[in-house]
Specification:
Strand order of the largest sheet: 1-2-3-4-5-6-7-8
Helix content: 40-55%
Number of strands: 8
Distance between the termini: 39 Å
Length: 214
């Protein structure tokens, strides 16, 4: 399972990249707005660090606007993936981007039906938001299982990019259910390393090491 970081923070990106774990980046207008910087400049800087897919979201919701912005974003770097909302005009644009060999990430997916439409349009990635489904009383993890089964039934190449991941249990479960990729905030990446037995075991090893002669 590929690991993406959901951030526009260059320091966080560099830290995970240095670990050798980073496969890609997802961003959205809300994340980049927090930086207070120009949208395209931030995307360009991220692409200079990350060689894998970097999702950059369009702001328009009409077909013409999505196509125009998507083409501009795709020119920033060859690894830019145009992030498009799962609305009719967005799906129409995804089909057009597919004809032009522009990679796409269809975002704000909350049902298997929506995921099927995105795959039929040729989306490179589909982003089911599991945490947001949990927030309103639905089983976000079950959505990953449903999409996996449907895509496997028909041989769709669209990759399942699990999003809105809140904690390590989400991370483990989306891997078990066959997600191709997962995107995490930096705080969750940090959580993945932690276990009290790891901490206590390391402390014991370090204490015993003081008795050794090198």
């Amino acid at each position: 399972m590929n690991l993406f970081l959901d951030t526009a923070n260059l320091d966080e990106i560099k830290k995970v990249a240095d670990l050798g774990l980073l496969d890609g980046i997802t961003t959205n207008p809300s994340i980049i707005a927090k930086s207070g910087r120009k949208f395209t400049e931030v995307i360009a800087e991220i692409c200079a660090i990350v060689k894998g897919p970097v999702s950059a979201e369009v702001l328009s919701t009409d077909f013409a606007g999505i196509i125009k912005e998507g083409e501009e974003l795709a020119k920033i770097a060859p690894n830019v993936v145009v992030k498009v909302p799962l609305i009719p005009e967005g799906i129409k644009a995804v089909a057009e981007f597919t004809k032009r060999d522009i990679q796409t990430n269809v975002t704000l997916c909350f049902t298997a039906n929506q995921a099927l439409l995105a795959a039929k349009a040729g989306a490179t990635f589909i982003s089911p938001f599991i945490g947001r489904l949990d927030d309103v009383g639905y089983d976000g993890l079950e959505l990953i299982s449903e999409i996996r089964e449907i895509y496997d039934n028909y041989g769709y190449d669209t990759q399942i990019l699990a999003a809105s991941v809140r904690h390590p249990i989400h991370f483990k479960e989306v891997a078990l259910r066959g997600a191709d990729c997962v995107t995490l905030p930096y705080s969750v990446v940090e959580m993945l390393f932690k276990h009290p037995l790891t901490d206590s075991g390391l402390a014991k090893f370090l204490e015993d090491a003081k008795k050794l002669t090198w």
